[in-house]
Amino acid sequence: MEMKQGIFYGVGVGPGDPELLTVKALRVMGECPVLACPQTKSGEMLALDIVRQAMDVSGKTILPLHFTMSRDAAVQRAAHEKTADEVCRYLEQGQNVAMPNLGDVSIYSTYCYLMDIVKERGFETQMVAGVPSFCAIAARLGISLTEMNSPLHIAPGSSDLEEVLHWPGNKILMKSGSQMPGVLQAIEEHADLAKSAMIQNCGLPDERVFPNLNEEKPQDSTGYFATVIVKE
């Protein structure tokens, strides 16, 4: 009898606060014997750290995943193929694998790169939605992101902000940390700092809140997980 293949799940775990994990996310990860977790060069597994605050993972196989920061498409593809190899070894044995992702699994998610490769190899994949960072940030700031007939735009901080900031509606600038000086300058020139806010590491112990960037701006590095909301 042919062994049943495992399923590869991408699970959104929210931006940092473990109370934002959904019931479904906890159920799926609880049922999977393997957790495939992105790991930084320094050994940190932030998504797993969030999960550990909400459930017991002591009986799980923890598979660290390493992703390249190279912008070269060929280098990225080779790294993703290698990482998919590691995941597929467990799927071939009939074990379900869950990959926890910060925020929502469909938004700038490393899971989606692996999902496409794993699908190509004939395995089933499923996505479990999570709370996006910008939704958690809006709630933390107590502001709405959209209103009747008003669009919402999501862009990385490395975008052509002169163009983005002239789009109608409110804007979310994600992954803005390393770009922060340029982001702040672009907002000052093409939008309104007084209608702009930023949160770094939302829901994490080192969270920093800037509710009005005209009154207070970050004076040092804001790190990778810094998201800016620019109101129209």
Apparent shape: elongated
Please give the share of residues in helix. 25-40%
- The overall pLDDT average reads 92
Structure annotation, total helices:
7
Which value, in Å, is the CA radius of gyration? 19 Å
Across the major sheet, the strand order is 3-2-4-1-5
Q: Tell me the number of strands.
A: 10
- Biggest beta sheet attributes: 5 strands, parallel
Q: What fraction strand?
A: 15-25%
User: Unreliable stretches, pLDDT < 50, 5 or more residues?
Assistant: none
Indicate the structural class. alpha/beta
Layout of strands and helices, then pairs:
Layout: E1 7-12, H1 23-31, E2 34-38, H2 46-52, E3 61-65, H3 73-92, E4 97-101, H4 110-120, E5 124-128, H5 133-141, E6 152-156, H6 161-164, E7 170-174, H7 180-190, E8 196-200, E9 208-210, E10 226-230
Parallel strand pairs: 1-4, 1-5, 2-3, 2-4, 6-7
Antiparallel strand pairs: 7-10, 8-9, 8-10
Mind explaining what this structure looks like?
With 232 residues, the chain is of the alpha/beta class. The protein has helices at 23-31, 46-52, 73-92, 110-120, 133-141, 161-164, 180-190, and strands at residues 7-12, 34-38, 61-65, 97-101, 124-128, 152-156, 170-174, 196-200, 208-210, 226-230. β8 (196-200) and β9 form a beta hairpin. 36% of the residues are buried.
In short:
Helices cover about 30% and strands about 20% of the residues.
Structure keywords:
232 residues, alpha/beta, five-stranded parallel beta sheet, five-stranded mixed beta sheet, elongated
